[in-house]
Amino acid sequence: MRRSLASFLVVAVAVATLVVLPATPGGAAGSFTFYGSGWGNGLGLSQWGAYGLAQDGWNRKRILTHFYSGTRLATADSPPKALRIGLVQGKVKIRLEAEAGPVDLRLGPKGGDVVVTIPKGETWTVRVAGSDYRILDASGARVGDPVGGPNANLLAVYEPNGARVHVAETGHTYAHGRIEFNLYNCQTGCVERLINVIAPQPYLYGIAEVPSSWPRPALQVQAIAARTYAFAKAATGQHRAGCNCALYASSLDQVYIGWDKENGVDGSRWVGAVDATDDLVVRYKGEPIQAFYSSSSGGWTENNENVWGGTPIPYIRGVCDPGDYTTANPNAVWQTTLTAEQVTDALGLGIGTVTGFAVTDRGVSGRIVSVTVKGESGTATLSGLAFRFALGLRDDRVWINRNRQVIGEIRTKYDAVRCAPGLPTSKQVKVAGGSSQEFENGTIYFKDGIGAHVLSGDVLAFYRDRGGPSGSLGFPTSDVIKRDSGATLAHFENGTITCTASGSCSVS
After folding, report:
1. What is the rounded average pLDDT of the residues 462-491?
2. Alpha-carbon distance 338 to 435, whole Å?
3. Does 87 lie in the same domain as 68?
4. Is 164 inside any structural domain?
């Protein structure tokens, strides 16, 4: 789900003199305030967006096809019989506890003869011994001679025994499939890794991306997205360098915690969502998509090329996310203040103390694509992704020392019109007993008892000329209405503005 980031942290040093955002206003002298929204990469499905839309009555198909443009739901053709899930890598010892029954340790790719059996309730250790495995019992005593090696994998087999195995190094328990040990990197000293070889459906039972208490449509959306992501990933190969797996059990791909998810609070609801969507995937032109997703879009998802670069993916297009601004979402809006010294140290650009920024490019969602950092001795240009991770920001949908957050009743209206006003160009301000906020394509006005309404075009310009909400017309009581003739009009507390197609406006 969340790709490795090292390849995206491109920094280009520049020397041109730029107009920049200084360390004021928006923060104390010598500091920067980052006004942000969202958490994650902003690509594809927004998990909090799905939550909010499910609460609003959207079904799984509508949610998924909204976030993944031009796609459809369909059953998977020839799904993989098993998935290889990389649990842990680079260890010299791994501890296994047998739960609810005995756990067999076997040799061979499919599990040959039993080498030893871990009794129920005991924790045994499998450690590296040169280029072999050494098995230690619960007391730490050696059990038999070293076994296996780089070409003879050890397997933990538990499911046929009605058992489960707890792996101390992952902190989780596994009840399905089997666990394969590998010895690797033996040229410099062997280390161990674990792979859970498991059928797709029980693998999904262990996906821990969202709380199991969420609305059922949101759970089903997550189950389908996770299945689609897994199948697309497995189709590219199940023996990736480093993990010998199709998917990592972490946010490098999808968070997988095995039995702990299905046995956790409301786990039966999550299992029910997985079962209710059995074999369903999201397809584009017949193929399962790369079903990227993140926690919170901040109200608007992004085009893939504006985050990770590369070729545009037709189904990963930025779309309005009207479900993200749910009261349950802790990351719908946020702000962080850092001192100039903190920013300088975190960025490490070698340009002296950072004095300001110039955002030179934003994506369709407002996420930073490119930002130039000005220091006392030079400038440097970073990608939005590099900037975000260097500073530890939750997202790169952020404005620096400029509050452009869309909140409250104005945000509710903004979402209701599917982000049609465009990106915000001002902060929300109080006017004449109400509030307003300006956007690329219009202004939203709000007043208690009247609600929020969007004005744009000739009507907005004429309204401003007449004093706006402080003038005789008062606040708008309708959005702009367009007639078949091309004329536009809007109603206000104390009258109506009508503009002809040629732009001539009058009040009645």
Report:
1. 97
2. 29
3. no
4. yes
Q: What is the pLDDT of residues 27-69, one digit of tens each?
A: 555 999 999 999 999 999 999 999 999 999 999 999 999 999 9
The closest of 17, 19, 37, 22 to 401, measured between CA atoms, is 22
Amino acid occupying residue 75:
T
Residues 215 and 194 in one domain: no
Alpha helices in 25-121 (DSSP H): 47-55, 60-67
Q: How far apart are CA 247 and CA 82, in angstroms?
A: 12
Range list of β-strands (E), 199-340 = 247-248, 280-284, 287-288, 293-294, 334-339
* 3-state percent helix, strand, coil for the chain, nearest multiple of 5: 20, 35, 45
Per the domain annotation, does 205 fall within a domain?
A: no
Rg (CA), the chain: 28
Per the structure, the count of domains in the chain is 4
- The pLDDT, as a whole number, for residue 462 is 98
Helix (H, G, I), strand (E, B), or coil: what is residue 313? coil
Question: Containing domain of residue 473, as a range?
Answer: 412-507
* Cβ 411 vs Cβ 380: under 8 Å: no
Distance CA 30, CA 337 (A): 10
Q: Are 85 and 195 spatial neighbours (Cβ–Cβ below 8 Å)?
A: yes
Name 89's Cβ contacts closer than 8 Å, sequence gap at least 6: 191, 193, 242, 243
**Residue 314 maps to a domain:** no
Q: Are 96 and 88 in contact (CB under 8 A)?
A: no
